[in-house]
Amino acid sequence: MTTYILRRLASIVGLAFGISILVFLIIRLIPGDPALALLGTNAGDPSLVARLHAQLGLDDPMPVQYARWIGNVLSGDFGYSYGNQQSVTSLLAANFPATIQLTLAGLTLSLLVGSVLGVVAALRRNRATDTVAMGFALTCMSIPSFWLGLLLILLFAVQLPIFDVVGGTSLKGLVLPAVTLALGSIGFNARFVRSSVINAQQLNHVITARAKGITGVQVFRRHVLRNALLPILTIVGLQVGQLISGVVIVETVFSRPGIGRLLVQAILSKDYLTVQAVVLIIAVLYALTNFAVDLLYPVLDPRVANR
Amino acid sequence: MQPDIAPLTANGDAPVAEVILPARSLRHRVLQAFSHRSLLAGTVICFVLVVVVLAAPLFTSADPNLQDQFSAFAQPSGAHLMGADSFGRDLLARVLYGGRTTMLASLYVVLLGGLVGTALGVVAGYFGGAIGFVIMRLVDLLLAFPGILLALAVAAVLGPGLSNGVIAVAVILVPVYARLVEGATVEVLHLPYVDAAVTLGASSWQIIRRHILPNIASGIIVLTTSWLGIAALWIAALGFIGLGVQPPTAEWGAILNDGANYITVAWWITVFPGVFLALFVVGVNLLGDGLRDELDPTLSRNPGR
To answer: What is the value of pTM for the model shown?
Structure first.
């Protein structure tokens, strides 16, 4: 168990290092002088350019630049956003809570609805209920989330003003974005849960239990669900990545404050330091989520730790 | 670490007990394949959409970029079947010609990402050693980024534009293909006929081309169809955000961005391109599901169908 944890820990540290190098390169790979790109409309001022050169250490060798950058990042300093006239760190702090709220709401919704759909489809396998549920799942996965968001805005802003549509982080304003965010994942989850449950149903001891005459509900609860839970745990990790991708779109569609919208606006306004910070933070959070999932595996299935 | 949006093949039904089937003719197999409902439905949807989009001039004589201030925000009618946008451009023409852009761009995405990813995967799997190690660690690293984040980071560096968008989305696919192909290559690498080819003095290139690639092709085809739909969604998403196609070129995502700006005045700009995009993705996904069932029975969602 300890070696398992240590092994996972070593791999995530390696991964975080790799991520940080790639993210560091974002600014250095921009064609032309990064200082000019960062300053945007202020690029005409030579003293400002010179100051930024010194600040970023653009004249130093790359490894030195990287070491200075990562040192700053670890102490919470991501630089200054010239476009927004404030430090990137305070931008992040202002936008993070709304994103967390939206992601958690989306995750809860997609896991709940997806699991119910998947379990029902598996128990009614190859019957009409299954076909309908899986058809619904495929539709969920195929509908572009930004289009769904627009349709919801169209319906609720124009026709039925029940929910707050644009902006705001109130509970009423959370409903439509959360549904939009969750829909694609609901389809994916339903399909995944269905096949996990069907797999578990075909395990020998489950068939034995059924042959012994144990009731369907008990077999499902004690044998099928337990075995199906492990693969389902994996998708929670996957899900977070999928939801983060969704958040970027959903926040843009609903003009909701948050990390995703911050990222899109930063890219459009060439605010590269903000881009760098957001990409780094999301990637590291994503890696940490998967690390947490890895740690939960051996709790559910002790065999994993010995592999 | 796994991709955030796993291909639709992430489906783990138990392998069906192997049945020895008599060799069947190609015609028989094709007929058999089309008895598969989702394969048939997917093929029909995709075929119809491709034909409609390619034959756009037959359906509308309007120029998708022709502005006409007198028909700005014209409602759907006989003159403009799908209405007109804020510049009075005919929406039907924009949706059909825009479909060409979106479909072609997503095709380029899977071709580019697929080729680079397959090449990396074959090299890593076949040669292994230090090269393989470096390639696969790089693959792990790329997979550590949630898909759209990677695309956005690449788009940030390259700047907006359709070809840059294609590259940005293709970057997401590279590690996915490389990982699948590497695994498949290692699996076939030590089969007796490959050993035999080595013994007979075949070159690495010959072995890869004649013995390895044909044997992993079905997996690659299934992956490609699964990702074509996702590629279309991401290309449209980039267009929607404003990082893909630049005005005035029509593209489904970019038209939807227009629609968002005028959503309270002109519902048609939002509804019609979205219907087409969703239909295309549904069609490709159905096709992918069907192909997976046919080419890779161990992953079948409905064994025995």
So the answer is: 0.82
